[in-house]
Write a structure and sequence with these properties.
Helix content is 10%, strand content 30%. It is mainly beta. A hairpin with a 3-residue loop joins strand 2 and strand 3.
C-alpha cells in the first residue's frame, strides 16, 4: 500500500513524496480526470523544457569570434617640404619624400619626379595666384630599364632634393605655392616585371600636399 505525504505549497499544487517530485493541480474540473497524475508529469516536463531553452539562450557568446583585420594602405604617399620664407635670390630647396605604407614591395619609375632631379616640368608653381612658366630642361629619352626604378620595401621611404629657384622665376617678393604635378609614371607591384612589357606603363596617382614659400626683398 503506497503512503502519501502531501503538503500544499500555497500556489494550488500538492507535493507528494513518492520518490519522485510531482505536482497535482488542485483544480479537478473537466480538464483533469483519473489520469491527472499524467497531466502533472506533462506539466513538469514542459516546465523543465522551458528552463532548458532559457538556459541555452543565456549562454554567453563565444570569445573565439573572428576579429576584423585592420585595413592596410593600398597606395604610396608623398610629402613635399621646404622653407617657409626666403630672401629673393636665395635657393628654395624642396624635399620630396615618397613612402610605401602598403604590405608589399613596390618599384617606382623615378622619371618625372624629384627623385631624379628636375628634367621636366614636374611642379605647378604660382605666385599670388598667377602661374609661373617652367624654365628648365625637357628631357627626351628611350624606354626605361630596371635601373630607372627605385625599390620601396613595406614601411620604407625615399627622398629627393631640388632647388626649384633654378627652374622657376622666384625673384619677385610674394607668396609662392608649389605642388608636385604627378602622377607617378610607372609603379610595379611585387612580382610584376620592370620595365612593363611592350613598352607599357602603370601610372599611379599619389597624394602630395602643396607647400607655400614666402619670398621677401
Amino acid at each position: 500500500m503506497r503512503k502519501h505525504f502531501a503538503a500544499e505549497d500555497g500556489r494550488g499544487f500538492v507535493t507528494q513524496n513518492t520518490g519522485l517530485r510531482a505536482f497535482r493541480a488542485r483544480y479537478r474540473g473537466p480538464m483533469f480526470n483519473s489520469s491527472g497524475r499524467r497531466w502533472g508529469i506533462a506539466v513538469l516536463s514542459l516546465g523543465m523544457l522551458g528552463s532548458a531553452c532559457a538556459a541555452r539562450q543565456d549562454v554567453a557568446p563565444s570569445t573565439e569570434a573572428t576579429q576584423e583585420t585592420p585595413a592596410m594602405a593600398t597606395t604610396l604617399t608623398c610629402t613635399l617640404s621646404g622653407p617657409a620664407q626666403v630672401r629673393a635670390g636665395e635657393p628654395v630647396e624642396l624635399v620630396f619624400e615618397l613612402s610605401n605604407p602598403t604590405a608589399q614591395s613596390l618599384r617606382v619609375l623615378g622619371w618625372h619626379t624629384p627623385l631624379e632631379g628636375v628634367r621636366n616640368n614636374i611642379f605647378d608653381v604660382s605666385r599670388d595666384g598667377d602661374s609661373l612658366e617652367y624654365r628648365g630642361p625637357m628631357a627626351k629619352r628611350g624606354p626605361p630599364t630596371a635601373d630607372s626604378y627605385v625599390a620601396l620595401s613595406p614601411g620604407t621611404s625615399v627622398e629627393g632634393k631640388v632647388d626649384v629657384a633654378r627652374f622657376y622665376d622666384l625673384q619677385a617678393p610674394g607668396t609662392y605655392r608649389i605642388a608636385f604635378r604627378g602622377p607617378l609614371m610607372d609603379v610595379a607591384r611585387e612580382g610584376e616585371p620592370v620595365p612593363a612589357p611592350n613598352g607599357g606603363f602603370r601610372p599611379a596617382e599619389v597624394p602630395c600636399p602643396a607647400v607655400e614659400v614666402t619670398v621677401t626683398p
